[in-house]
Specification:
Keywords: Signal. This is HEAT repeat domain-containing protein. Residues 1-19 form the signal peptide. This protein has 495 residues and is mainly alpha-helical. Helix content is 55%, strand content 4%. It has helices spanning 26-29, 62-72, 90-100, 104-109, 116-129, 134-137, 160-168, 177-185, 192-204, 209-218, 223-232, 242-249, 254-264, 270-276, 285-299, 303-312, 326-342, 349-363, 368-374, 380-393, 399-408, 411-423, 430-436, 442-454, 461-470, 476-488, and strands at residues 76-82, 87-88, 146-152, 154-159. The protein has a four-stranded mixed beta sheet. A hairpin with a 1-residue loop joins strand 3 (146-152) and strand 4.
Length: 495
């Protein structure tokens, strides 16, 4: 079983603001998060009854009640570290204290708290840490209450039911997984979103009940469940229902065409690929995206088709690496590597990242030579991803190359190299950083100053003092704060 908020979603934390992802602070996190009715997950017309209660009805200790009420004051469920600087989340702190002050019985009871943030935390805790609570947590699969989550820099919108489903679902390989999915997919009391996810997972696993449940889902008035039924037509053990999917691919309804495209992606035949091609130019962009993604899934192991696909549609290159084997991942990276080195066609950051991440996750430290090569790529996003992952792997052998980036890279390259060198604890780079305090770009001077503070480089105090004295623009205030932090030997909070 897994808990959504325990693991940071993949992403470069230094890119929170650049990627347009909202950053949180204790002040802003207290703001309420509103959703249109049923915008996230639709409730069943005959749901399980759930009796939600206030804190004083669920917890006995005063200190525990205080921490639970503190949790309820925040607007979202978060991971332990949030924001671009990886700061500790205040709601997580309150949650930890509440757990320490409550008994297992109270923790199960708090899964029925009237506040959805509190409920979301304890639904997941009970499901994962207290196996005996499963049948008491299960009815919350009917709770369509919307809630926001923040993992690192990424904010998502979900429902209590979907959080409960994710936490209750046994891991792949667990013999309890398929029976659980079959139970949920056929349960008309849980939310439509949960039933749809269960059906999709069941069909992907080739479970014999998936065909029957898919046929029933096709008659549903709920478009999400109906879409799951259509997608499931492509995962039948005997090769998928190509005839029915072809009809759905021509539907006047965009959601139906989108689901059909996803179903066709599961059928590895020439005819399925041919049916996807007309959807590349569908009037609806979501249908286009689904069709290209589905087509990508069928060409990822064919280097010639993959090369043509990348040239035609570089922006969806990220779809290539999902679920590939090590061999296929390396093959996909071989094809995209030349595009990254020459920046033709240009591939954006969020399309580069899955390739580099997929390579690292598949081959581990064996990826280091290729990552070092990417430091010389013309695509700046490839250079950034390489620096991030080299430092994440802990490749101290790349320190000379990273020092070279400091001396000859772009402003953005220098920023990423500073982060990587700090992560690698490369104190030998301090002289290079001190020299860069004379750079004519204020952004570079500020990134360098932050790195010097992270290194506790007291030898750089006089040079930073001179930089602050010369500064006349907007960077003077944050540089002054960096100087104060360096003198005091403290961490620097982003100004």
């Amino acid at each position: 079983m897994r808990v959504l908020w325990l693991g940071l979603a993949f992403g470069l934390l230094t890119n929170c603001a650049r990627a347009g992802v909202r950053e949180s602070s204790p002040a802003s996190m207290g703001d309420s998060v509103s959703f249109p009715p049923s915008s996230i997950d639709a409730p069943s017309p005959t749901p399980y009854p759930n009796d939600f209660r206030p804190t004083e009805k669920l917890v006995s200790k005063r200190r525990a009640r205080e921490e639970v009420d503190r949790m309820a004051a925040f607007g979202r469920i978060t991971s332990e570290a949030i924001g671009p600087d990886g700061g500790r989340s205040p709601v997580w702190t309150a949650y930890e204290r509440a757990v320490a002050e409550t008994s297992p019985a109270e923790q199960i009871a708090l899964a029925r708290h009237e506040n959805p943030v509190v409920r979301g935390y304890f639904v997941q805790l009970a499901a994962v840490e207290i196996p005996s609570s499963m049948e008491r947590v299960y009815p919350l699969l009917a709770d369509a209450t919307p809630v926001a989550t923040q993992s690192g820099c990424v904010i998502r919108h979900t429902s209590i039911a979907l959080l409960a489903f994710d936490a209750l679902l046994p891991e792949r390989g667990d013999p309890a997984r398929s029976p659980f999915l079959a139970r949920v997919a056929s349960d008309d009391k849980v939310t439509f979103g949960v039933r749809a996810q269960a059906l999709t997972a069941l069909a992907t696993a080739g479970h014999p009940d998936a065909n029957r449940l898919a046929r029933a889902a096709l008659a549903s008035s709920n478009e999400e469940l109906r879409g799951a039924g259509i997608r499931a037509l492509g995962t039948r053990p005997e090769g998928g229902d190509l005839e029915r999917l072809e009809g759905f691919a021509r539907s006047p309804d965009a959601k139906t065409r989108q689901a059909a495209a996803m179903g066709l992606g599961s059928i590895e035949t020439r005819r399925a690929s041919e049916l996807l091609v007309p959807l590349f130019t569908d009037p609806d962009p979501m249908v286009q995206r689904a069709a290209r993604r589905a087509y990508a899934a069928n060409v990822a192991s064919d280097p010639d088709k993959l090369r043509l696909y990348l040239q035609a549609d570089a922006e969806t290159a990220d779809d290539m690496v999902f679920g590939l084997s090590r061999r296929e991942t390396e093959l996909a990276f071989d094809v995209v590597e030349s595009a990254l080195m020459e920046n033709k066609p240009r591939i954006g950051l969020w399309e580069v990242l899955p390739f580099v991440r997929g390579l690292v996750k598949s081959v581990g430290p064996d990826a280091i030579p290729r990552l070092r090569k990417l430091l010389g790529a013309r695509n700046e996003n490839a250079r950034e991803a390489a620096m991030y992952w080299l430092s994440d792997i802990g490749d101290k052998g790349s320190i000379p190359d990273l020092r070279g980036v400091l001396r000859g890279g772009t402003v953005h390259d220098v920023e990423q190299a500073c982060h990587a060198l700090v992560k690698l604890r490369a104190v030998e780079a301090v002289p290079d950083l001190v020299e860069l305090l004379k750079h004519d770009d204020p952004d570079v001077r500020l990134h360098v100053a932050k790195a010097l503070v992270a290194f506790r480089a007291r030898s750089a105090i006089s040079a930073l003092e001179a930089t602050v004295a010369r500064e006349r623009g907007w960077a003077k205030v944050p540089l002054t704060k960096a100087l104060d932090a360096l003198k005091k030997g403290e961490d620097l909070k982003d100004p």
